[in-house]
Amino acid sequence: MITRTLRYMGTQRIVVVGGGIVGLATAWHLQRGGAEVSVVERREVAAGSSWGNAGWLAPALTLPLPEPAILATGIRALLSPKSPVYVPPRLDPKLLGFLVGFARHCTDRKWRQALQVFIAANASALTAYDELSDAVEAGVEEPIKAASPMLAAFASEADREGLLAEFRRVNTDGGRTDYALLDDAAVHELEPALGPGVRCGVQIEGQRFINPGRFVHALADAVKTAGGEIVTGRVVTGVDGDGGRPRVDFADGDAIEADHVVLANGAWLGRLARKHGVRRLVQAGRGYSFTVQPDSTPRNPIYFPTQRIACTPLGGPEDGLRVAGMMEFRDPDDPLDPRRVDAITEAARPMFTGVDFAARRDEWVGSRPCTTDGLPLVGRTRTPGVHVAGGHGMWGVALGPLTGRLLARQILHGETDPVLRSFDPLR
């Protein structure tokens, strides 16, 4: 084995494992603090869950994933291939252990405890994006769009009540979500692309959205502009800290030593982090998406909470509308299951007009790293110099830049923000 030591005179050398939004945002902030950074990605930049997601920067909807409503649907519903939250009926001890832990956090008390953490994180999530875009040097040159407004659409007022109850709890517990109710006529006037299946809605203010694939690639360009190295197509098999300085081992027998290593490898986080004391299970919660070309592309994101479907205009009219959904607890390396795409299509079709779902393109599945308590794993491990940044579930894009900022400050300056204490990977 050939081991290379990366060290610059008076400069900390840091290796980030993972080329998604979380890893690249961490690299960007480390560079701003004066570190020399290399990002190592086993496939390509944004190849994981950073590419095909909905791209929402929506504090109003960035809430704890383990919620009482999931258990209320019943075990039988969770086993249905058409369910928006799906568990394959197979004997998998690791998955079973995760589900038991997840279920324990699907209580109102646990949800409200986690909600306090999300309220604190959401308060700075959008300004963290502004920091990336507003930087004079090595800023991210990809637009962040204001949702004016973001729209939640429903088949009935009874369906709408679930989202309103969440908003009321957020506002009661110290957060702030600004919204207005829309009747049948108002919701269709606001968005003509909605079909007869929509009878009412909620107009949500203060949210934003991006084209996630383009934004992450622009972030990678910013890292390279600032002198960072991004290496793709290299598989990391382990990180060893026994020799005093962390060493990253590769499948080809090569190795790199550095002052610090950040593990930001998404749904595969546990494979590298467990030996460093990170015991909380990380399970892939796979999301699916595809793109359609409506007769009239909506200008703003649309959310169907009952169906758990998120729709995002990707840019100009020719870019189409991304339709995303599903939470499938399954192995992250399993192939795309076309039944999940069909289930999203069936659920979305009556909610739109002027959309040919048979002509959908860019079918995609991505593995989101979920934890049993719904909180990310960000911070120091038991091995000196080894850190983790992952476990964000559905909120890696929403919280990625904030994660990078907080972790970089901890690594470079020893600062531990209160939000980071709640994300402690050794909890």
From TrEMBL:
Q: SUPFAM superfamilies under this entry? A: FAD-linked reductases, C-terminal domain (SSF54373), Nucleotide-binding domain (SSF51971)
User: Does Heme appear among the keywords?
Assistant: no
Asked whether the UniProt record includes Membrane among its keywords, one would answer yes
Q: Which GO terms describe its molecular function?
A: oxidoreductase activity
Q: Which GO terms describe its cellular component?
A: cytoplasm
Name the InterPro entries on file. Answer: FAD-dep_OxRdtase (IPR006076), FAD/NAD-bd_sf (IPR036188)
List membrane-spanning regions: 12-30
Where in the numbering of this chain does the FAD dependent oxidoreductase domain appear?
13-409
Sorted UniProt keywords: Membrane, Oxidoreductase, Transmembrane, Transmembrane helix
Annotated PANTHER family: GLYCINE OXIDASE, SARCOSINE DEHYDROGENASE-RELATED
* Protein's UniProt name: D-amino-acid dehydrogenase
Q: Which organism is it from?
A: Pseudonocardia ammonioxydans
